[in-house]
Each structure stands twice: as structure tokens, then as C-alpha cells.
């Protein structure tokens, strides 16, 4: 754990030094950079939707049995009671 903290601190200090000693760049952003950013954001959102698809489906489902099973509470004898 101490090694992980020291490595992350060293990386943070190195990044600060690199940012602090940057020279001004006289450049332009390519017109395709906006599309690349849009593609990155949309693929990240699609990945999140894929991993959370079951929660999203239960949120929008109108099936009452799915809502009842999510609200059931186990009792001491092993059966489930709807809360």
C-alpha cells in the first residue's frame, strides 16, 4: 500500500512538473478532433449502458412481477414477504 501511494505521488509530481514547464504551443486543433471526441464520449456512454442494461430495463419495465421481486424481504423462516 505504501509503495502504491509513493508511486502515485511520484507520477503526480512528474505530471505537475511537466505541466509547469510547458512551452506555449503555436498550433491548431484539427477539424477531425471534434469528431474523435464525440466518438469517444458516445462509445463510453454505450459501454456504460451495456454494463448497466439490467438496471435500465428494470427502471423502464412495466412488469409488476419484476418490481415485486425487488421489494421482497426475506423472513426468518426462509420465505419472502413483500414489503
Observed structural traits:
single chain, 83 residues, mainly alpha, two-stranded antiparallel ribbon, 4 helices, 2 strands, flat
Detailed description of the structure:
The structure is a single chain. By secondary structure, the protein is mainly α. The protein has a domain at 32-60. Helices cover 65% and strands 7% of the residues. It contains 4 helices and 2 strands; from the N terminus they run ααααββ. It has helices spanning 2-20, 32-51, 53-60, 64-70, and strands spanning 72-74, 80-82. It has a two-stranded antiparallel sheet. A hairpin with a 5-residue loop joins strand 1 (72-74) and strand 2. The chain is flat.
Q: Compute the separation of the termini in Å.
A: 43 Å
What is the C-alpha radius of gyration, as a whole number of Å?
Answer: 25 Å
The main sheet comes to: 2 strands, antiparallel
Counting helices, strands and paired strands, the structural category is mainly alpha
- Count the E strands: 2
Anisotropy-based shape: flat
Amino acid at each position: 500500500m505504501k509503495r502504491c501511494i509513493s508511486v502515485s505521488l511520484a507520477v503526480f509530481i512528474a505530471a505537475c512538473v511537466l505541466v509547469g514547464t510547458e512551452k506555449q504551443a503555436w498550433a491548431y486543433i484539427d477539424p477531425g478532433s471534434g469528431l474523435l471526441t464525440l466518438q469517444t464520449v458516445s462509445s463510453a456512454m454505450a459501454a456504460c449502458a451495456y454494463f448497466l442494461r439490467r438496471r435500465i430495463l428494470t427502471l423502464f419495465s412495466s412488469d409488476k412481477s419484476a418490481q415485486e421481486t425487488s421489494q421482497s424481504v426475506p423472513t426468518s423462516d426462509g420465505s419472502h414477504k413483500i414489503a
